[in-house]
Write a structure and sequence with these properties.
alpha+beta, DNA primase DNAg catalytic core, N-terminal domain
Length: 162
């Protein structure tokens, strides 16, 4: 009985992906900010570059650069975990800046309701070097492990030949 309980626990634990949870929380936050911003909603209604079908979506978000203020500081274990997760996924840069800062965000969901990609349309002032349209794709599972293992193998082979 104890062995069965351990297997069930490991199955449930294996299904929990904290990166997916943090991604969902980030896009939920963006959605809340969009619903509270009349200016962002007006931009979507009046923009010719945004399809009318997209404008009617219930998952539209707005990145108004306030999410970082609502995440615990990186010096705390919880804040470090959340910020690290969002950095690994590419939604937050090492500097703490959000990828979609100043953008209306249109996420794409898979069948399970998880965000797998998003497009952001910058509105307002676009600074030099900033892109008007920002694309993001969720990193594939184990992508970081594969890259790390390839790098380790490369180091091992380099040492073996010298």
């Amino acid at each position: 009985m104890n062995i069965q309980l351990d297997k069930n626990y490991l199955n449930v634990l294996g299904q929990i992906n904290l990166d997916d949870l943090h991604i969902k929380q980030a896009f939920d936050y963006y959605r809340q900010r969009y619903q509270q911003s009349g200016l962002a909603q007006q931009f979507v209604k009046s923009s010719c570059s945004i399809d009318n079908q997209c404008g009617d979506s219930t998952v539209i978000g707005y990145c108004d650069r306030t999410m970082g203020k609502n995440i615990p500081k990186c010096r705390t274990p919880e804040g470090a975990a959340i910020r690290g997760s969002l950095q690994r996924c590419g939604l937050v840069r090492a500097s703490g800046h959000e990828l979609f800062r100043g953008c209306i965000v249109f996420p794409t969901l898979n069948d399970d309701g998880n965000v797998i990609s998003a497009v952001g349309y910058r509105f307002g002032r676009i600074r030099g070097g900033s892109k008007a349209i920002v694309y993001w794709h969720k990193p594939e599972l184990k992508a970081f492990v594969d890259v790390g293992m390839a790098f380790a193998k490369e180091l091992i082979h380099a040492k073996a030949y010298h």
